[in-house]
Design a protein that fits this description.
With 123 residues, the chain is mainly α. The protein has five helices and no strands.
């Protein structure tokens, strides 16, 4: 079950990138910058990817514990959910935020070491 939850985490991370891109495009259109919508979409998605790579990625050496990285990653994803709500998709944003929180709770309950157990390594 915990491997399914880790797979859900990956899907949620990818959805956060998509939500950032959508929000960037829609918010650019809302302020009248329709021609720049695709630039805003690429910029927002790139910002999430770069922030994730610099802070949250498991192999990033930045002195943060895996638990702290996970919490920061959750905050980034919840921020993209809020941006989705601001972009006119409140129902989708709420569903996304609920899945993010459920995933976080399940990570706490089920543990994070599913891959290590599959390889026969004990933590």
């Amino acid at each position: 079950m915990s491997i399914v939850n880790l797979a859900l985490r990956l899907v949620l991370e990818l959805c956060a990138i998509a939500a950032a891109a959508y929000s960037g495009n829609e918010l650019a259109a809302a302020v009248g910058a329709v021609p720049l919508g695709w630039i805003a979409a690429v910029g927002a998605a790139s910002a999430v990817i770069l922030l994730w790579a610099a802070i949250v990625a498991p192999k990033t050496q930045n002195g943060l514990s895996p638990l702290r990285k996970e919490r920061i990653g959750t905050a980034i994803m919840l921020t993209t959910a809020a941006a989705l709500a601001c972009a006119g998709q409140p129902t989708l944003a709420i569903a996304f935020a609920v899945l993010i929180v459920v995933n976080l709770v399940l990570l706490d309950v089920l543990g994070r070491d599913a891959l290590a157990h599959m390889k026969g390594v004990t933590a």
